[in-house]
Amino acid sequence: MANATNAEPDSEDEACPSGVVEVASDDDEVPSGLIPGTVGGAAYMNVGANGQTVDAINTIEIVTVDGKHQILYRSDLAFGYRMSPFQAMQDLAAIVALTFRLLPSISAKERQQAYLRRRRWSQLVRERTAGSVFRNPFGMGVLVGELFENAGLKGFRVGSAEVSKVHANFFINTGSSNSREMLELIDL
Ligand SMILES: NC(=O)C1=CN([C@@H]2O[C@H](COP(=O)(O)OP(=O)(O)OC[C@H]3O[C@@H](n4cnc5c(N)ncnc54)[C@H](OP(=O)(O)O)[C@@H]3O)[C@@H](O)[C@H]2O)C=CC1
Ligand SMILES: C=C(O[C@H]1[C@H](O)[C@@H](CO)O[C@H](OP(=O)(O)OP(=O)(O)OC[C@H]2O[C@@H](n3ccc(=O)[nH]c3=O)[C@H](O)[C@@H]2O)[C@@H]1NC(C)=O)C(=O)O
């Protein structure tokens, strides 16, 4: 699903296994997969980590509900924090392909490893979660994880759905949780 175009990526940056994406924008690189999401979901949600967004995307191919195929340039589209124009598109059937602009970067591997080290202690990389549950509130100077931790929610459960004890904006399926329990935990 992910294709690289317009530049000669080095072998590390080229590693973007299908269905898994890590994005970075400062020098248009796409290091190997650290975000456990799909490239379609990444474009739809403008997924980002470490302050970077999907600026590395070059084109987005979509199919509309009436079967039309369109190629859109990211530079013509307005993205925001976890926002994309696709969220308001009434006739979107699916994002079917992305191309990325990749440039070689000698520091990419080092930064990728540093991000991964940080993620290993600050977030959950092995448990069954869907990543952050809520967007961070804009301009309030506080993060959802901090708010929930301060509210004493870490470890709070509905059935087998649990607010993580590591990162309070990650909700874990600790065993046999189902969507009803997850939604109930989210609604509380
Ligand atoms: N930054 C990080 O560290 C991490 C980020 N993430 C998450 O990555 C998410 C993306 O995850 P992912 O599991 O891929 O996405 P999801 O399956 O959660 O889908 C997210 C949204 O994108 C839509 N979507 C997904 N694929 C397509 C497609 N091909 N065409 C059109 N719409 C699509 C989904 O629509 P529908 O519901 O109809 O399928 C849904 O509304 C972000 O929401 C982010 O929270 C997760 C872990 C870590
Ligand atoms: C995981 C996702 O993306 C993540 C992305 O990986 C990280 C890193 O850039 O920054 C956002 O999380 P975040 O704002 O919680 O950042 P983190 O780096 O995880 O945590 C930042 C800080 O919050 C504080 N923190 C976090 C969790 C917690 O329970 N308690 C707490 O106090 C800690 O000080 C920690 O150092 C994205 N989430 C959103 C909703 O913007 C996702 O979207 O699914």
UniProtKB/TrEMBL annotation:
Subcellular location: Cytoplasm
Cofactor: FAD
Cross-referenced Gene3D superfamilies: 3.30.465.10, UDP-N-acetylenolpyruvoylglucosamine reductase, C-terminal domain
The protein's name: UDP-N-acetylmuramate dehydrogenase
Pathway(s): Cell wall biogenesis; peptidoglycan biosynthesis
A single cellular component GO annotation: cytosol
Organism whose genome encodes this protein: Nelumbo nucifera
Keywords (A to Z) from UniProt: Cell cycle, Cell division, Cell shape, Cell wall biogenesis/degradation, Cytoplasm, FAD, Flavoprotein, NADP, Oxidoreductase, Peptidoglycan synthesis
